[in-house]
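Batch 3, record 17
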Amino acid sequence: MPNIRKIEQIQGEMTEWRRDLHAHPEIAFAETRTADFVAKKLAEFGLEVHRGLAKTGVVGTLINGDGPAIGLRADLDALPIQEQTGAAHGSTTAGKMHACGHDGHTAMLLGAAKYLAATKDFTGTVRFIFQPAEELEGGGRVMVEEGLFDKFPVDSVYGMHNMPDMPVGTMSVRGGPGMASAASFEIKVIGKGGHAAAPHEGVDPIVAGAAIVGALQTIASRVVNPTQGIVVSVTQFHAGETAINAIPGTATLRGTARSFDKDAETSVPAMIKRVTDGIAAAHGVKIEFSYQHRYPVLINADAESAIAFRVGQDVVGTGMDAVYPRIMASEDFAFMLNARPGAFVRLGSGFADRESPMLHSPHFDFNDAALPIGASFWGRLVETVLAK
Ligand code: NI
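Prediction for the assembled complex:
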């Protein structure tokens, strides 16, 4: 069974929605027009609509008799990037664009809502979760903290992301860790500024900072078990201003740590602290260190991943792939998967006839050919998990 026929019949409509959303991108917690658009459609389809979780979040509920409850999640937000696609439906807002395909995710979930509300070939409850601020700001975390699953209980929850490096007509999912945790850190190195010609009279924070950058590389290569897989990257090093003949008083390093292993990432702050304390003692500098866990590891539950895999096979046949390479990027659907069992599915969105720019590229535009596939997956998933 390929795509659902009734969903193929609304492909044109889903494409219009997608392009309308693409032309009007909004970023983190400011998705008001987008939320209005979604809420209006859900109400038109006859769903119960709730707004205001995490500011601009929208939850649509569709109940048809007794049975379990399933959550389906899409993300609403765009990115602060200047669009360069040249598309007729290109961004009408300078400096903002849908460069990650969340316009497509939203249109597919709306398409599934329209289909399921009309056909109701299931028994139980479907929650359509439209979350704001997936990029950087953790809108998924905020929704969970504001009681998403207390107000709208579900037994399982599923998410989906388009992947332009996978051809249209393919999908993948697998149980276990799929995307990395992410943390950010700042290390302020406090020395004593002075004349560059008399370094012995000051305490040079640049030399100490450079030693820290070098020593931090040993966390991934020498301290953490190599099978745990971890990245510690220093991405900023700020020191000194205009004078090239002065040693500055401070240097500030910032960076990120990522891992697929819960335990490895939670132990990173202690490892960084050990390195910086040792170097501080050796160089005579002081250290101010802060570390923020931002996103947890995204872990797909085995049972729900197996269900999603079989449903994917129904829709794309042999295009369903058990290979689900781990990605070192993070995804805030991980907060929902920490709260309820579920799976995060990848949907091929690569163009068949031209090059597919990567996610977050100013040339990225969601491939509308993927719309009926993703929406059909949602429809069949509900009809499978909530089978009559
Ligand atoms: Ni995304």
